[in-house]
Amino acid sequence: MNQFNLRDAFNGTQQEMSAILKANRMVNVHAPTKGAVTEERWREWLQEYLPKRYCVSEAFVVDCNSRCSQQIDLVIYDRQYSPFVWNVRGAKYIPAESVYAVFEIKQSLDKDNLEYAGEKIKSVRLLNRTNAPIYHAEGYISKPRDPFTILGGILTLDSGWSDPFDEPFIKVIDAFEPLQHVDLGCVLDRGSFNITYNAESGHSRELSTPEESLIYFFLKLLSRLQRMGTVPAIDIEQYARVLSSI
Hints:
Number of strands: 13
Domain DUF6602: 25-125
Oligomer: single chain
Strand content: 15-25%
Largest sheet: 9 strands, mixed
Organism: Hymenobacter lapidarius
Shape: globular
Number of helices: 6
Structural class: alpha/beta
Helix content: 25-40%
Protein name: DUF6602 domain-containing protein
Pfam family, one: DUF6602
Order of helices and strands: HHEEEEEEHEEEEHEEEHH
Strand order of the largest sheet: 3-4-1-2-5-9-11-12-13
């Protein structure tokens, strides 16, 4: 039987991604352009490899009470049960019900960028999410499901800390309130992390090696998305309240 070297395939993907981001950093001296190119590359990569049920965009997240999050660099969302996505002069607005995960994208992991990511994540988790029964073609109805906790994370090329996940990193993570929790992250050239939070015992961390950072992050993200299932169905009537006719 022919062999396919899965490890080499994973490593090749990471090396390609790292080379693209490093070239962008060298060529683009204009900081906003550099940041925009980096963000777009992460979005393109995830859109290419995630299952087609997931959409990936830069966006604002909104709720039925007309509240809006900060601008989010990368939103992973579902269109099946939450049909409203508004494009306003290039800016995208996505209903909170459709969101699985949000990520901040930076050049480097450090205290300021990690805390900034926590605030961005909080601005999404604060939003109200409706849920409604799901009507199936066979005639039966599924009861509304409880909304899951939206995943939050950060994606960078490298780290400003000599050891990216040592004491300074832990100190920031431990200071977060629950709405700011950062669950996943990839520091492409240094490693990735996957954090599980517990109200009683605090948090537990899993870390990758630098050589496996990208695929480790991707597989952990995919695993957590699978466990979340499908987003709740949006309650259309709650959004219809903005109409003067209702």
